[in-house]
Design goal:
The protein is mainly alpha-helical. The chain contains 10 helices and no strands. 22% of the residues are buried. InterPro entries: Homeodomain-like_sf, HTH-type_TetR-like_transc_reg, HTH_TetR, Tscrpt_reg_QacR_C.
Length: 198
């Protein structure tokens, strides 16, 4: 059996406290007390609270990528992939225990665009893959020159939901997603989006 290192204990305690209390209400002293160590010992392993939180975020991001790969590799119908992606976004992003901490962290670092842009780029790539797959299968009738516009619509929707519906119930979120996707899929499966984007 492998011995758990102090660095691992600090990470685990920080992850738990950030999830429970958010970024602002989790201090290095609180983490130190949870582990039974000192603040300076935490700073020996992690250069700052922000650095420690970024490592916690990295693990969350890796879990998200695993979920996306499962969706991509196990669901073959592009319309079902879109629905699965949106549901994963609700359950593994909006409703994730670290979500409050992430929002607080982004505000503290003056909303640095790099972090959010990295996540947006990931969502863009996923949506583009799904849409192109649907086009290749002949399911989605999208003008290839307008693919970026279609990706923008999907990204705009999920970040709009993220920014405006975070306090809604799960049922309300799912209803909004279902309504949007039904309308969106109607436009891209009937060719209406081709007409609009000419």
């Amino acid at each position: 059996m492998m011995k758990v290192t102090k660095k691992q204990l600090i990470f685990t305690a920080a992850q738990h406290l950030f999830s429970e209390k958010g970024y602002n209400d989790t201090s290095l002293q609180l983490i130190a007390e949870a582990v039974g160590t000192t603040r300076s010992n935490i700073l020996y392993h992690y250069e700052s609270k922000g650095h420690l939180f970024e490592i916690v975020l990295k693990q969350w991001e890796e879990q998200w990528y695993k979920s996306w790969h499962v969706i991509r590799d196990t669901i073959t119908k592009p319309s079902e992939q879109l629905m699965a992606y949106f549901k994963a976004f609700i359950y593994e992003d909006l409703r994730h225990p670290l979500r409050k901490a992430l929002d607080e962290y982004l505000l503290e670092i003056n909303g640095q665009k790099e972090e959010r842009e990295r996540w947006v780029a990931s969502d863009r790539a996923a949506f583009e893959l799904i849409l192109r797959n649907g086009m290749m299968q002949g399911v989605f009738r999208i003008n290839p020159a307008a693919i970026r516009v279609q990706v923008d619509v999907l990204v705009g929707f999920i970040y709009g939901v993220s920014d405006t519906m975070e306090n809604k119930t799960e049922a309300e979120l799912l209803a909004a997603v279902n309504f949007f996707l039904k309308m969106y899929l109607l436009t891209i499966t009937t060719g209406f989006s081709e007409e609009v984007n000419r």
